[in-house]
Amino acid sequence: MAFTVTYSSSAAISGSSFSRSTSFSVIKVAQFSSLRLADRHATVNQSKKCCAVKPVNAEPKRNYSLLPQAASISASEVSEIVEVEDFEQLAKELDNASPLEIMDKALEKFGSDIAIAFSGAEDVALIEYANLTGRPFRVFSLDTGRLNPETYRFFDEVEKHYGIRIEYMFPDAVEVQALVRSKGLFSFYEDGHQECCRVRKVRPLRRALKGLRAWITGQRKDQSPGTRSEVPVVQVDPVFEGLDGGVGSLVKWNPVANVDGTDIWNFLRVMNVPVNSLHSQGFVSIGCEPCTRPVLPGQHEREGRWWWEDAKAKECGLHKGNLKEDSSPQLNGNGNGNGSAAHADIFGSQSLVTLSRAGIENLEIGEPERAMDCCSLCPLVPLLPGNGRIVCCIG
């Protein structure tokens, strides 16, 4: 029986396409009109025996599996091409940039993997800046279940104004139930707000950030001089993890870090941006209803949050990585809350006396060092004699 077996193979990889052509020539049998099945098996067995002997000049066995090759090539190329972003250097470069420029850079770099954290307060400015860039953007918010009714209505107004859908994050119902059943609805007035904030805010935030590679906050240095005075415009988040997991997997952008609160409000008015109606009632920093109250003119905005606690505790844990220890006077201590040096508390002075109405009416305003202008908002102004000055005993 005479036969020949020929084998040819060619493989080519071009770009992302791969083509392979392999042809086995038909077994040519001479001088036989037919080939029996037994002969065919014999032929195959014989060919296997022949192939078992490897010629000296034969090519090495080829691997036609595309996936392992592609994976190994991609891994080597990525290690050579991808560069780790130096966000500390980027923060220095953007330190004098406008909030709009910083916002545009953030959205350009991360696209749909970044979102704005919206609390329902003046950080609505972030949404306006994002809208001005003309780029698509995402917004998420933490619904603790204890926000003011005005804040919920404001959320709805913002969604309609910008044509967006806010991605709300809620606390775990089982955790909230366990906390309330064991400690009551207002335990934070007795043992601090940290536990409640951890359940209602920090853990929901952690879940939200696990689906992102970056987030945008409304932190400003002047919001809390004692704890936020060193907030950079961009940083690797030192506390939370992002989509890829692990330390350094999440980038935090703070576009208005260097902006004064007054300038934020000027921007909101000029751009006719909707604002939370609570602001017109004296609220500046807005959080959950039981933990937020209006502040008086001249008071720092953080004095309206967790007022029953020490000023060092006036953070909920969302920005723990930006906090720093501060030895300067605190907001509800003898300090004036704006980072300047402390002054003696005049209300603790032995010289302070309480005057009756009759005493005020009979007061002779002839000693400037003992009088001061009364605030025009004070309800006592119409009751005071003369030009509305009141004894203060500061001299």
TrEMBL record:
Span list, region Disordered: 320-339
Question: What cofactors are annotated for this protein?
Answer: [4Fe-4S] cluster
Q: Which InterPro entries match?
A: PAPS/APS_Rdtase, PAPS_reduct_dom, Rossmann-like_a/b/a_fold, Thioredoxin-indep_APS_Rdtase
Q: Which UniProt keywords apply?
A: Iron, Iron-sulfur, Metal-binding, Oxidoreductase
Q: So which domain of life are we looking at?
A: Eukaryota
* GO terms of molecular function: iron-sulfur cluster binding; metal ion binding; phosphoadenylyl-sulfate reductase (thioredoxin) activity
CDD domains in UniProt? PAPS_reductase
Question: What GO terms in the biological process aspect are recorded for it?
Answer: sulfate assimilation, phosphoadenylyl sulfate reduction by phosphoadenylyl-sulfate reductase (thioredoxin)
Give the matching SUPFAM superfamilies: Adenine nucleotide alpha hydrolases-like (SSF52402)
Q: Does the keyword Iron-sulfur apply?
A: yes
Domain Phosphoadenosine phosphosulphate reductase, first and last residues per copy? 114-294
Keyword Metal-binding (UniProt): yes
Q: Which PANTHER family match?
A: 5'-ADENYLYLSULFATE REDUCTASE 1, CHLOROPLASTIC, 5'-ADENYLYLSULFATE REDUCTASE 3, CHLOROPLASTIC
What name appears for this protein in its UniProt entry? 5'-adenylylsulfate reductase 3
What taxonomic classification does the UniProt entry list for its organism?
Answer: Eukaryota, Viridiplantae, Streptophyta, Embryophyta, Tracheophyta
